[in-house]
Design brief:
By secondary structure, this protein is an alpha+beta fold. Helix content is 19%, strand content 34%. The structure holds zinc ion.
């Protein structure tokens, strides 16, 4: 069966310990993998998600102790949005006040209540209250009650000069359909999953270009059910859109290809398998520093450089 939708979102952060505290203690996500940036092993790569770390729940960070802040602009992710049970928006508003999290007043978007907030690096996030998701999986290892806990991603919104070119990639290659428009927003949905199943394009022609740095999203990854589906998507991208993706890279927990879409964002296509329980027990995810085989012989040197985190 084909599953489309968001696989994971990867962003750039400041100090690792502050990042870990915020996502596990304030938002109540599970640290599902503690590893390093495979291309720069002096930096952590931290993965947060639900209990099992299923695709559609995973927000990951490259934390740099001294990362310069980025700037929101065209060709960047504007907001990453989590699903929470519909009745819990009040809980989250109180929690953000209590924990000193910068947030805005709740607003309606496509008929749903959205509460926007920022992490300590200024990463733009939101929770949206959704009916009928109380039974969806979540991580019960935090102090957040079941009736309020995050249920994976709802959506990302991407800031683009014009929606049509990025929309063509979403619909022709990544398995989405345009479903609604509201103001400058064009909403695309993957028909087959509500978990991470939405991409909103916000048209903002004339805006400055974004600048990468702490508090900005590095890339958005979309799901491929298998290597064969990933290959098909890559071929379609080349044949119909003249875009050449990278060779598949083995990220241990999925296999990934990357490409720059016409709106300027870095997209990835990641396989659903093998997932995060491939190199440690499902009940011990995120506890030990995991390294890919090709870096294991450098473990002592890598551990000496990484900052201590819990
Ligand atoms: Zn990625």
């Amino acid at each position: 069966m084909r599953q489309h939708g968001i696989h994971h979102v990867t962003a750039i952060a400041g100090p690792a310990s502050r990042n870990l505290d915020f996502y596990t203690q304030v938002l109540g996500l599970r640290l599902v993998k503690k590893t390093v940036n495979f291309d720069d092993p002096s930096t952590y790569h931290l993965y947060y998600g639900d209990a099992a770390g299923q695709p559609g729940t995973i927000l990951t960070f490259f934390p740099w102790e001294h990362a310069a802040p980025g700037r929101l602009g065209v060709g960047e992710t504007q907001e990453t949005v989590f699903r929470v049970p519909q009745a819990s928006i009040g809980f989250w508003t109180h929690r953000f006040v209590e924990k000193g999290v910068l947030h805005e007043a709740p607003e309606k978007r496509f008929g749903e209540t959205v509460l926007s907030f920022k992490d300590p690096d200024g990463t733009r996030l939101a929770v949206v209250g959704i009916a009928g998701i109380d039974d969806a999986p979540f991580w019960n290892g935090s102090d957040i009650p079941a009736e309020a806990a995050i249920r994976g991603f709802h959506s990302v919104s991407l800031l683009v000069a014009e929606a049509a070119p990025t929309g063509a990639i979403l619909t022709d290659v990544l398995g989405f359909k345009e479903v609604a428009r509201e103001g400058s927003l064009v909403r695309f949905a993957s028909g087959d999953t509500a978990l991470g199943g939405i991409v909103d394009l916000r048209e903002a022609g004339g805006f400055l270009k974004g600048r990468p740095g702490a508090g900005t999203v590095h890339h958005v990854a979309f799901r491929a059910a298998s290597d064969a589906v990933q290959t098909e998507m890559v071929e379609k991208l080349a044949r119909n859109h003249g875009i050449v993706a990278t060779e598949p890279k083995n990220r241990d927990y999925f296999r990934a290809v990357y490409f720059r879409e016409p709106g300027g964002l870095l997209f990835e296509i990641a396989t659903d398998d093998p997932g995060f329980a491939v190199d440690e027990a499902a009940d011990a995810l995120g506890q030990a520093l995991k390294l890919p085989a090709f870096l294991e012989k450098r473990r002592a040197e890598i551990e000496a450089v990484l900052p201590a985190i819990a």
